[in-house]
Amino acid sequence: MVTNLSKILNDINTFVVPAYCFGCNAVLYRGEHLLCAFCRNELPLTEFNYGSENAVDRIFYGRCRVDKAGALLYYREKGMVQRMIHGLKYHGREEIGSYLGAWYGQQLVRDPGIRTIDYVLPVPLHKRKQKKRGYNQCRRFGREIARSLNAAYSERLLVKPVMSHTQTTRDRWSRWSGTRGTFHTPKPEKLAGRRILLVDDVITTGATMEACAE
User: Fold this and answer.
1) Beta bridge pairs of residue 121
2) Pairing relation of β-strands 196-199 and 152-153?
C-alpha cells in the first residue's frame, strides 16, 4: 500500500513538474534519469576494459608508473558528451557527475581485470578556483565510483596548492610544463603501499593525470 502510494505520488509529481532529458529535452519516463533511453544509447561508449590495452593506456607509456588507465566515453566536439561536461563544469549541473560516476562504477565493478582499489582521489582544483566554481566537478563522479568499488574516497590526500592557468587552449608541451609541481600529498604515509584510482572529467594529453601520479 505504501509502495503503491509512493509510485502514485511520484507520477503526480512527474506530471506537475516533469523532468526533461538533458540530451533531447524530451520528457523523461519513470525509471529514466537525466537522459532518455534513446540518448543514453547514443552516447559513444569506449568499451575499454582492464584486461586489454587501450588508447588511454598508451598515453602514459614511458611517462609515469600507471598500472592501468581507461575512460567511459569518447569526447567529441559539439556532441552530447561535450554538452554534458560543459553542463557539469560551468553550469552547476553536478548531478551529471553522479550519473556518469554511477554508470562507470557499475562497469568497473563487473570488470574482472580490475584489482582492489584502496582510495579514489579526484583531480583537485586550487581552492580559489573551487570557490569560484562552487564545487569540484569530479567530486560526485569520484564518490559514485568509490561507492561501487567499496573504496575510500578523499579530497584531502591530493591537493593543488599552486594556481595554474586553464589547460584547454594549451599545446602538449605547455600542458606538461604547466602542471609539474602543482599537486601535493599532505599525508603521503596514508597512501604508501595503497592502490589509488585517480579520476578526472576529461583526458587529452594526460599531463594533469601524470602530474597527479607523480
Assistant:
1) 198
2) unpaired
| C-alpha cell recorded at residue 182 | 602543482
Cell, residue 99: 550519473
List the one residue out of 160, 137, 126 whose CA is nearest residue 90: 137
C-alpha cell at 24: 533531447
Cβ proximity of 196 and 160 under 8 Å? no
Burial of 35 (0-12, 13-18, 19+ CB in 10 A): buried
Number of Cβ within a 10 Å radius of residue 123: 21
43 CA to centre of own chain: 15
Q: Over 90: is that where the pLDDT of 9 sits?
A: no
Give the 3-state secondary structure of 123-166.
Answer: CCCCHHHHHHHCCCCCHHHHHHHHHHHCCEECCCCCECCCCCCC
Q: Please write the tens of the pLDDT for every residue from 47-106.
A: 998 889 999 999 999 988 899 999 999 999 999 999 999 999 999 999 999 999 999 999
Place of cell 579530497: 155
